[in-house]
Amino acid sequence: MYRPNNSAIDDPATLRHVMAEIGFAALVTPHEGGIEISHLPFVVRDEDGQTVLETHVARANPHWKLEGTPSAVIFQGPQAYVSPSFYPSKQVDGKVVPTWAYIVTHAHGSFETFNSSEALGAHLNALTDRHETRRAEPWTVADAPVPYIAALKRGIVGLRMVVERLEGKWKVNQHKSPEDQRGTYEGLMGAGEQGVDLAQALASFSATE
Questions:
Q1: Cα-based distances in Å from 202 to 19, 24, 103, 108, 157
Q2: Mean pLDDT across the chain, nearest whole number?
Q3: InterPro entries attached here (predicted)?
Q4: Ordered structural domains, the chain, with CATH
Q5: Residue 4 has pLDDT above 90, yes or no
Q6: Residue 189 pLDDT more than 80?
Q7: Cα 69 to Cα 31, 39, 65, 81, 163, distances in angstroms
Q8: Out of 9, 82, 183, 204, which could bridge 168 as a Cys pair, Cβ 3.0 to 4.6 Å?
Q9: Is the pTM of this model over 0.85?
């Protein structure tokens, strides 16, 4: 991934946190016939310092048959348009153009499959709990009839990847002048929920300088 202008983020803990917050990613696996791409929800874990990703696909999805093939998992985070009007420098020389702010993380590795009822059950519980625990009345897998869940598990295949390489990119105008960074922050704060997330990411860069 091209990462200029001090946009590279490589801290595993930071990247795990971001992937867990995003929760949804594209699994990309090249093969002799082309490229297989599946869009999937993921569980993100730290296991003894290693980043582990878990997901599942429908058994009818041929992607699981590419087990052991080098793959990438792309977590696309918040993104927003950046207007030239955000920059105070626009009034000085006009030498500004639109751009796009975004956060993205790539995880590289090879996945293995798992099929046992116990392993799939643990995975589905973890995935569900990750998103339900914030609700006032969380739903759990145990709320559904046991035979119903058992039948559903027979129709899926679990995928597990021990990540070999992680790379992140925060493109939030952190390379701009302090004045244009402030303008970017203020502009993004008015650009909806994703803009606010990007503005906060930019503020974190400024805080460390």
A1: 18, 23, 11, 26, 39
A2: 93
A3: Split_barrel_FMN-bd, TR_PAI2-type
A4: 8-208 (2.30.110.10)
A5: no
A6: yes
A7: 8, 17, 9, 35, 13
A8: 9
A9: yes
